[in-house]
Design a protein that fits this description.
Oligomer: heterodimer
Largest sheet of chain B: 5 strands, mixed
Number of helices of chain A: 4
Order of helices and strands of chain B: EEHEHEHE
Distance between the termini of chain B: 21 Å
Number of strands of chain A: 5
CATH class of chain B: Alpha Beta
Number of strands of chain B: 5
Number of helices of chain B: 3
CATH topology of chain A: Heat Shock Protein 90
Number of domains of chain B: 1
CATH superfamily of chain B: STAS domain
Order of helices and strands of chain A: EHHEEHHEE
Helix content of chain A: 25-40%
Radius of gyration of chain B: 12 Å
Largest interface: A-B, 24 and 22 residues
Structural class of chain A: alpha+beta
Number of domains of chain A: 1
CATH class of chain A: Alpha Beta
Structural class of chain B: alpha/beta
């Protein structure tokens, strides 16, 4: 994978960091001159991934969330969100719309649906007891299109 | 996120401002629920024109208030969401359940 630019950062699984993650993503991808809609899509997808790590990955506990943001050739944005939380026993089921393990917190079960809809590619790898890694990619429209 | 609620003749408008995520939804939920339970409005309109960001946490916030309003004999509406917010609402199919103007 050819990487034109990259930043990595790590943060504790505090809900206050959901907006911090979005701000960092905005600051990074602005160099690729995204449209307002593209920026909104990516911020929303990142917010969902980070919230999943906090609410589901580290449910009742705390830990670190590691993010990698990359700018790839042809204006492609790569984002990886990794937690070391409880993991997901059945990723396929977890990705079904409206499936949630936290209904009492009014989680809608749409986090993965949003990520899938707003990004071009979504990959979820998880091991019970070891954590979850969400990888997303989105190609920005060519300038002038 | 800030919540400013005004009520007149059974109709209430809750003006929401800022960003709705899992972190901010909690305090908004508490404020709105307290108002609904104490004031029992016929209609509660969530004015979302001041919301600049919303992820699926906002869907939970809207659906939870929709359910509570129905339990109290009232109706929830969503007013003036920006286009980026409408896209999340459409994805969730909210317009089939809650009136959006």
């Amino acid at each position: 994978m050819e990487i034109l630019n990259e930043i990595r950062f790590s943060m504790p699984s505090l809900s206050a960091n959901e907006s911090a993650a979005r701000a960092a993503v905005s600051a990074f991808i602005v160099q690729a001159d995204p449209t307002v809609e593209e920026l909104s899509d990516i911020r929303t997808a990142v917010s969902e991934a980070v919230t999943n790590a906090i609410v589901h990955g580290y449910r009742g506990t705390s830990g670190r969330i590691d993010l990698v943001l990359r700018l790839l050739p042809e204006r492609e944005i790569y984002i990886r969100v990794r937690d070391g939380g409880c993991g997901i026993a059945d990723v396929k089921k977890a990705m079904e719309p409206l499936f949630t393990t936290a209904p009492e917190e009014e989680r809608s079960g749409l986090g993965f649906s949003v990520m899938e809809s707003f990004m071009d590619r979504l990959s979820v790898r998880s091991r019970v007891g070891q954590g979850t890694t969400v990888t997303m990619r989105k190609k920005l429209a060519a300038h002038g299109s | 996120m800030k919540v400013d609620i005004k009520s007149e003749n059974g109709t209430a408008i809750a003006a929401l401002r800022g960003e709705i995520d899992h972190h901010s939804a909690k305090s908004a939920r508490e404020q709105l629920d307290s108002f609904i339970i104490n004031m029992q409005p016929d209609v509660l309109s969530l004015d979302m024109s001041g919301i600049t960001f919303m992820d699926s946490s906002g869907i939970g916030l809207i659906m939870g208030r929709h359910k509570l309003m129905r339990e109290c004999g009232g109706r929830l509406e969503v007013k003036s969401p920006q286009e980026s917010i409408r896209r999340v609402l459409r994805l969730a199919g909210i317009e089939r359940i809650v009136r959006i103007t």
